[in-house]
Amino acid sequence: MKKIKAIVTGSTSGIGKEITSLLLKSGASVIGLARDHKKFEPDFDNYFPVAVDLSDLEKAERIIPKILQEHSNIDVLICNAGHGDFRTLENFSGKQIADFINLNLISHIILCRHIVSNMKTNGNGDIIVLGSEAALVGKKKASLYSAAKFGLRGFTQSLRDECGNNGVRVCLINPGLVRSPFFDSLNFKPGEAKNNAIEPRDVAKIVLEVIKTRKGTIVDEINLSPASKSIIFN
Ligand SMILES: NC(=O)c1ccc[n+]([C@@H]2O[C@H](COP(=O)([O-])OP(=O)(O)OC[C@H]3O[C@@H](n4cnc5c(N)ncnc54)[C@H](OP(=O)(O)O)[C@@H]3O)[C@@H](O)[C@H]2O)c1
Question: What is the assigned CATH class of domain 5-233?
């Protein structure tokens, strides 16, 4: 693969960590965004960790212009950072709702807003957004998560339509359960059997295929499911 420059949000864990690892092994430069980089310190000269809390929208506003000053011509933005919180709606305060939507929806829109003009000017770019099966159907206790992920789905459809002519491709990936630390703070997780969850590496390989796809073709959306759906409550 051509030596690309990629920004990966949520590069320190789960899906983002695997995407980062595969990109680095392919020779790409990766600027990794997360709050705590002690969790993942890949030994590559072409890895550039940036500590940022993306739920702080003022920081989200400033981060892409700052990165572009140091690393021009970003080829790929992977919007992946996020977390889950699954409760009935009345259990969330207004502030918790705002914080959740800020991280899981608005920060991604802000990052795309800052990168897309640069990509359009270059006539080249891939934006890949991690949605979810919760972007396709709403279920109980997932009202906030689905609000954010449905929002991302509408956002990516429009952005794709807006910038396809300028060489910028926008792809949404909607996985079902992925076996990752995402579940560490939740009261459920995928069943123990191998086919009860997608592996982060599976998603990462698909992301690389999307990037490698011939430029004239856009991969709009990809839905992924574990072969056998089963969850365990703690
Ligand atoms: N696991 C699943 O079943 C599943 C299914 C469908 C979709 N997804 C989506 O896939 C994406 C990645 O999930 P994952 O399973 O890989 O989860 P994960 O293992 O918990 O990783 C989440 C990543 O996001 C970063 N992050 C979280 N809050 C952040 C913040 N405020 N600012 C900056 N970075 C932040 C974390 O780093 P720090 O904690 O260091 O900040 C971490 O690198 C999410 O968007 C999730 O909604 C997951």
Answer: alpha beta
